[in-house]
Design brief:
Rossmann fold; 10 strands
């Protein structure tokens, strides 16, 4: 399991006409190995910028993001993360899957991240049985031979999540991954994500506007406003904060 150390992370973007917008202003947070971090805040608060920094996708103006492997006693910059270290699930169910490939083929492509030799193997009955068993928990056990493009939005998002987990990452980043789903699939998706992460010992960082999900599923909630941390709620603090108070901290009213 990997932890995350964000120290004084700052990032600005050009806004044209010689002006700039501050997305992160000295953000610091520590995420323990196996912890579920929810990042919340109003639009423009810096949530997605922070998630991208944790994933090593952008260069900070100052500060650092470090991945920490306590078991091996080492750490390294997030920018050096590999696909087997960090996986992502996006808001759009069409991202992260291969539309013309079947569900079985999509799952095999995901495993390829850590085991390239898998692609050279035929899809055997044993593989089908093992994958079907894995997919049964998310309601896709009857969809193995279906193309991803023929799945519903909810089913395709569940496939994207299973693809992320089957690659066995150390860290999973969730970028509004339930926002495009209906209420039933949204709840199912969150429950499956949290359960699988805890079963596999994967650290999670999730950007979400769903404050109920942040309270119910996460271990820690980081609240941002205009690029700054206004609250860092660990389990004890989180339990005392309801949705209305969390919405106030986010600046929704």
């Amino acid at each position: 399991m990997y932890g995350i150390e964000v120290r004084d992370a700052s990032k600005s973007f050009e806004a044209g006409a010689g002006t700039s917008v501050t997305a992160l202003a000295g953000v610091s947070v520590t995420v323990r190995p196996g912890e579920f971090l929810a990042i919340v805040g109003h639009n423009g608060s810096g949530k997605s910028t922070l998630l991208r920094a944790i994933g090593g996708e952008l260069h900070l103006d100052s500060g650092s993001v470090t991945l920490v492997d306590e078991a091996e006693g080492r750490n390294w910059p997030a920018a050096r993360a590999t696909p087997t270290t960090v996986a992502r699930v996006f808001q759009d169910p069409n991202r992260g899957t291969f539309p013309r490939l079947t569900v079985f083929e999509n799952m095999r492509m995901a495993v390829m991240q850590s085991r390239p030799s898998v692609l050279r193997r035929a899809i055997t009955d044993t593989y089908r049985d093992e994958t079907t068993s894995r997919l049964s928990g998310v309601g896709l056990d009857q969809k193995g031979e279906s193309r991803a493009q023929d799945l519903s939005g909810g089913q395709r998002q569940m496939l994207a999540i299973e693809m992320a987990f089957v690659a066995a990452p150390k860290l999973l980043l969730l970028d509004e991954h339930t926002a495009s789903l209906d209420r039933a699939n949204e709840q199912r998706c969150m429950s499956a994500t949290a359960s699988a992460a805890r079963a596999q010992g994967i650290t999670l960082a999730m950007v979400t506007h769903n404050l109920s999900h942040a309270i119910e599923y996460s271990d820690r909630i980081l609240v941002l406003q205009l690029g700054e941390v206004v609250a860092n709620l660990a389990e004890g603090d989180k339990a005392r904060v309801g949705v209305q108070e969390l919405a106030r901290l986010c600046g929704y009213f």
